[in-house]
UniProtKB/TrEMBL annotation:
SUPFAM superfamilies: ATPase domain of HSP90 chaperone/DNA topoisomerase II/histidine kinase (SSF55874). InterPro entries: DUF5931 (IPR045975), HATPase_C_sf (IPR036890), HATPase_dom (IPR003594), Sensor_HK_TwoCompSys (IPR050482), Sig_transdc_His_kin_sub3_dim/P (IPR011712). The chain crosses the membrane at residues 12-30, 36-55. This is MacS family sensor histidine kinase. One of its GO terms (molecular function) is kinase activity. Residues 231-258, 379-401 are annotated as: Disordered. Residues 286-385 form the Histidine kinase/HSP90-like ATPase domain. The keyword Membrane applies. The keyword Kinase applies. Residues 385-394 have a biased composition (Low complexity). Pfam families: DUF5931 (PF19354), HATPase_c (PF02518), HisKA_3 (PF07730).
Length: 401
């Protein structure tokens, strides 16, 4: 909802309420007017105008410049007509003009539609009309004029600031959406193209000959692709590209809940031990697939950083408030600051394939590592608010370390 929509609704109510107030003042002072029929004629026009145009101030599209000019003209006409129908004694004593505070609605419409500059013009014209009607700068008239002038300009300025903030927020949301889509595509590339290029580069180097040249080209393309999808700095030339061996890809999501235990079980094999609760752990299809892919990315990091001979353990636990998957290895551990450095260098395993996936589900990822004692990655996916494991994880969030 637009930030200025409540202001338009308030203006609609203001015009109706102030019309009632102006009519009440007129009825109570009817016998005191010098020309009550002339005053009654204007009040009839004011009532009809308000009734026919009440929906013109419900939104900026219908509240045009022409309407605002006509609305202000009706207010100014009523103020300047007051000396012709009312007695000089009543005017001198500070009696209200024919439109009374209804005239403030015309100025507020200018403030909401055009900001403080339009408000300044409208309030200045109303102030001048009030001074002409009173015949001079009486104390109470000056007080009311200044009140309308300052308040309308302040409201106009607030509207301009609110609109600027709304535009800034809209731009930020568009940038965030584009960034999330970029990260999603980067994760998909990391899980497929980059893995294959890294494997070709390693195998080609190991085979030598023409295969080594093919491996070198694959490595260059991997570096270029990493730079493209991350928008970050190009890795140093002496560094070897690649994030790890290729790994199984979880089945594509489908409608309905998925059993996370069934998705994680295929990761078990030589060097990888999997332990589950023995009962289905049901999550929404998309959430289950993303969590399984994050586990696969964590195993890739084990193969790369801990070596092919390292052992890994996957533990799936269902907790009262969510699901916890722990991936632990017996490798050398991660030096302090290495994860942040890897993200800056364009290494996408931890930054996107793990942390990014769980963040998009509303959660986080945590790495616990002591040099020489291996690394433990915790991925936590809470159940939806008020839900359970059986209801899926549409509102879940992930945590990993």
């Amino acid at each position: 909802m637009s930030v200025e929509l409540p202001l338009w609704r308030a203006l609609t109510g203001y015009r109706i309420l102030t019309l009632g107030y102006a009519l009440a003042l007129f009825v109570l002072a009817y016998r005191d007017y010098d020309h009550p029929l002339g005053a009654a004629a204007y009040m009839g026009v004011l009532t009809l105008w308000t009734a026919l145009t009440w929906n013109r101030v419900t939104g900026p599209e219908r509240c045009t410049r022409r309407f605002l000019a006509a609305d202000l003209t009706v207010a100014l006409t009523g103020i300047l007509l007051t000396p012709a129908v009312d007695s000089a004694e009543r005017i001198a004593s500070g009696a209200a003009t024919l439109p009374s505070i209804w005239a403030g609605g015309a100025v507020l419409g200018l403030a909401i539609k055009g900001g403080w500059r339009w408000a300044a013009v409208g309030s200045t014209l109303v102030a001048a009309a009030n001074l002409v009607e009173r015949g001079g700068p009486a104390r109470d008239t000056v007080h009311n004029v200044l009140l309308v002038w300052v308040s309308s300009i302040a409201i106009g300025y607030i509207v301009e600031v609110a609109r600027a903030s709304e535009r800034t927020l809209a731009r930020a949301l568009r940038i965030e959406a584009a960034t999330r889509e970029r990260e999603r595509l980067a994760r998909d590339i990391h899980d497929s193209v980059l893995q294959v290029l890294a494997m070709v580069q390693r195998r080609g180097t190991a085979l030598g000959g023409e295969a080594a040249e093919l491996g070198r080209l694959a490595g260059e393309q991997e570096i270029a692709l990493r730079t493209l999808v991350t928008g970050g700095p190009r890795p140093a030339p002496h560094e070897q590209p690649g994030d790890g061996a290729a790994r199984p890809v979880p089945p594509a999501p489908r409608e309905g809940p998925r059993d996370l235990d069934a998705l994680l079980a295929p990761y078990a094999g030589a060097g990888v031990t999997y332990s589950g609760p023995g009962t289905p752990v049901l999550l929404a299809a998309g959430a289950a697939a993303e969590l399984a892919a994050a586990v696969g990315a964590a195993l890739d990091n084990v193969r790369k950083h801990a070596g092919e001979g390292a052992r890994a353990w996957i533990l799936l636990e269902e907790e009262p408030d969510g699901v916890l998957v722990t991936v632990r290895d017996d490798g050398p551990g991660i030096p302090e600051g290495r994860l942040a450095a890897a993200e800056r260098e364009g290494r996408l395993g931890a930054a996107l394939s793990i942390r990014g996936r769980l963040r998009d589900l509303g959660g986080s990822a945590e790495w616990i590592s002591v040099p020489g004692q291996g690394t433990e990655v915790e991925l936590r996916l809470p159940h939806p608010a008020g839900g359970s494991a059986d209801s899926g994880a549409n509102g879940a969030r992930g945590a990993g370390s």
